[in-house]
Write a structure and sequence with these properties.
47% of the residues lie in helices and 14% in strands. It is built from five helices and six strands; from the N terminus they run E-E-H-H-H-E-E-H-E-E-H. The strands form three sheets. The protein has a two-stranded antiparallel ribbon. Strand 1 (7-10) and strand 2 (14-17) form a beta hairpin. 25% of the residues are buried.
Length: 175
């Protein structure tokens, strides 16, 4: 869900993209323990992350609307999930003996991050409570949220904005 919400539509037609540069993409991944600090991502890596974000948004939007997903989005997810090993492999240290780890060399940082993100999103979309994802009900917000009770908005700010718009619409309708 965090990747889907990393590009936010703001009032006045503005947007905030947390992945707009390789440095921002690196910081975003590092904050989520998906890449080491100082990984020095290239633009192609940031572009791949933004591309997966659009596929995540597409699949969430399809789920929320109760419509079939675009085949390209499903293919992109499956491709991201299968590029790196996700099962911990058996490795052997001469001093400490056997251990398991999921290798992801520094050349595959982005592939590993994309695989983890895609797998998490696939789990969200196929979980028993997969009906919980919802789109924020406060235009122009484009974020997704997990419904809890009657919650319709991604944040208090969006809820306040929606309530203020309703009040304003009532006041101007009676004038």
């Amino acid at each position: 869900m965090a990747l889907a919400n990393s590009a936010v539509a703001l009032p006045g037609g503005h947007t905030a993209d947390l992945l707009s540069t390789p440095a921002q993409a690196e910081q975003w991944l590092a904050r989520r323990d998906l890449a080491p600090v100082g990984a020095s991502l290239a633009e192609v890596c940031a572009t791949r992350l933004r591309s997966l974000r659009e596929q995540v948004r597409s699949l969430l939007a399809s789920r929320v609307a109760g419509q079939a997903a675009l085949p390209a989005a499903v293919t992109a997810f499956n491709d991201a999930m299968t590029r790196v090993p996700t099962a911990p492999l058996l490795l052997w240290n001469e001093k400490t003996g056997p251990y398991r780890a999921t290798p992801h060399p520094t050349t595959a940082i982005v592939e590993h991050a994309l695989a983890v993100i895609a797998a998490d999103a696939a789990d969200l979309l196929t979980a028993p409570d997969a009906a919980r994802p919802a789109a924020c009900a406060s235009p122009p917000c484009n974020r997704f949220l997990l419904k809890h009770g009657r919650r319709q908005w991604c944040s208090t700010r969006c809820g306040d904005r929606a309530r203020a718009a309703r009040v304003y619409a009532r006041l101007t309708a009676t004038d």
